């Protein structure tokens, strides 16, 4: 029997790529998104890529009544929950917005799911829950903490979902801790389209390459890393999306909560990303070294063995694939979906 998956935030960066993988794996997809950080064109492009149609509900997950109507209209088997705000700096300026949207949104979603008898959820958590800890690679059992409201929302939601599973053993929740998602679908039809000046490294580099920004600022070259710049675990968004399909396949065998890192297990420096982008795409990326960004750690990368052993998932794409696909998307869509 074909399963129906409700994807909250399905018009966003990771959500749209996950919809592609779900449709290609034979799932039926329903998207709920309020388009606060995305564009209706993204799901249209997903339909173009896959040749499959699906319903998109322009609904805010904080709006209980409208959300309940979506569950009443469709026979939903499981929810993949991406909807939320994600900018660290903005969360420091607008903590209440972040707590309201991310936490109240998730509580409302859980209540509506429980009422509808849908008790399987895959949640977008983040490597940000490993906090300022520099003890890489991170295992899922590493201590967790947060240093900003965005990170707190991820930690609190992880706790809320664990408590829900303890109270009601019918629930199955998978917490996926993403490392640094980058790149785009190879078609160049969907990709990352940040509002304003990008906070994250790869979209910043792509916008320098396309001429929208003049110069990359590298935040510090005095970290205790091989070349002094920050080290991260960049993961191709298609590998990440595939991790959701694998997690979904595994929920039948699972009881309660399971936590998985989704990363490659490889630490890549800022300079590695810049030089690989230049080499693969043949475009110089002018940069200057500036002071460290407050809140950044030297190194963050995953121990991804648990996902390999239990979900049979590994990241397959290389850094070369990531920079090529990021540039392909940016080149074909210099102003994003606008
Ligand atoms: P995104 O902003 O592109 O996607 C989020 C989507 O949710 C957007 O389409 C937005 O319009 C929608 N949305 C937000 N609030 C909503 C609400 N109240 N009701 C309905 N829709 C709402 O972000 P993304 O990069 O695709 O991230 C998806 C999830 O993964 C987020 O929860 C994010 O915190 C998490 N995550 C992202 C990263 C990353 O670096 N991109 C890393 C770790 C975790
Ligand atoms: C990567 C590296 C920077 C921009 C963030 C969130 C995290 C998660 C993923 C959601 C670092 C350096 C960056 C620039 C730079 N999101 N850099 N110049 O900080 O690892 O993680 O996104 O959950 O919560 O904090 O990612 O892409 O911002 O930075 O030198 O203009 O690139 O210092 O070393 P980060 P990033």
Question: Could you please describe the fold and organization of this structure?
Answer:
The protein has helices at 13-24, 41-50, 64-73, 88-93, 95-116, 149-167, 201-209, 237-250, 270-281, 305-311, 319-332, and strands at 4-8, 28-32, 55-57, 78-81, 120-126, 172-178, 180-182, 216-219, 231-232, 234-236, 256-262, 268-269, 287-290. It has a domain at 4-190 and 234-265 and 300-316: Rossmann fold (3-Layer(aba) Sandwich), CATH 3.40.50. With 338 residues, it is an alpha/beta fold. Helix 1 crosses helix 8, helix 5 (95-116) packs parallel to helix 6 (149-167) and helix 9 (270-281) packs across helix 11 (319-332). It contains eleven helices and 13 strands. It starts with a strand and ends in a 6-residue tail after the last helix. The protein is globular and about 55 Å long. Nicotinamide-adenine-dinucleotide (NAD) is lined by residues 8-9, 11-15, 32-38, 60-62, 82-84, 86, 101, 105, 124, 126, 178, 181. UDP-4-deoxy-4-formamido-beta-L-arabinopyranose is lined by residues 86, 88, 126, 128, 180, 199-201, 204, 216-219, 230, 232, 270, 293, 296.
Q: Helix/strand-derived class?
A: alpha/beta
Unreliable sequence segments: none
Distance between the termini: 38 Å
CATH topology of the domain at 4-190 and 234-265 and 300-316: Rossmann fold
The total count of helices amounts to 11
Key structural traits:
binds nicotinamide-adenine-dinucleotide; Rossmann fold; 338 residues; two-stranded parallel sheet; 7-stranded parallel beta sheet; binds UDP-4-deoxy-4-formamido-beta-L-arabinopyranose; alpha/beta
């Amino acid at each position: 029997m074909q399963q129906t998956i409700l994807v909250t935030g399905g018009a966003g960066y990771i959500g749209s790529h996950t919809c592609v993988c779900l449709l290609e794996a034979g799932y039926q997809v329903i998207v709920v998104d309020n388009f606060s950080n995305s564009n209706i064109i993204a799901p249209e492009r997903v339909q173009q890529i896959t040749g499959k149609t699906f319903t998109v509900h322009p609904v805010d997950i904080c709006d209980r009544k409208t959300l309940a109507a979506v569950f009443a209209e469709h026979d939903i088997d499981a929810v993949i929950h991406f909807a939320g705000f994600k900018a660290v700096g903005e969360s420091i300026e607008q903590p209440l917005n972040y707590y309201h949207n991310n936490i109240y949104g998730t509580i409302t979603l859980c209540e509506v799911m429980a009422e509808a008898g849908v008790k399987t959820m895959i949640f977008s958590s983040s490597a940000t829950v490993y906090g300022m800890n520099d003890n890489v690679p991170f295992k899922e059992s590493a201590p967790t903490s947060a240093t900003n409201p965005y990170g707190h929302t991820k930690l609190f939601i992880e706790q809320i979902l664990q408590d829900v599973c303890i109270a009601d053993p019918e629930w199955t929740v998978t917490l996926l801790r993403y490392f640094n998602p980058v790149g785009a679908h190879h078609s160049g039809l969907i990709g990352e389209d940040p509002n304003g000046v990008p906070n994250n490294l790869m979209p910043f580099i792509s916008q320098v390459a396309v001429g929208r920004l003049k110069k990359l600022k590298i935040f510090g070259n005095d970290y205790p890393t091989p070349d002094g710049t920050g080290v991260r675990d960049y993961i191709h968004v298609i590998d990440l999306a595939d991790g959701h399909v694998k997690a979904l396949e595994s929920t039948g065998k699972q009881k309660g909560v399971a936590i998985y890192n989704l990363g490659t297990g490889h630490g890549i420096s800022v300079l590695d990303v810049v030089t690989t982008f230049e080499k693969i795409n043949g475009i110089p990326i002018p940069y200057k070294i500036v002071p460290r960004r407050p809140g950044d750690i030297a190194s963050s990368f995953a121990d991804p063995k648990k996902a390999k052993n239990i979900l049979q998932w590994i990241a397959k794409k290389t850094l070369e694939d990531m920079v090529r696909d990021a540039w392909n998307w940016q080149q074909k869509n210099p102003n994003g979906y606008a």
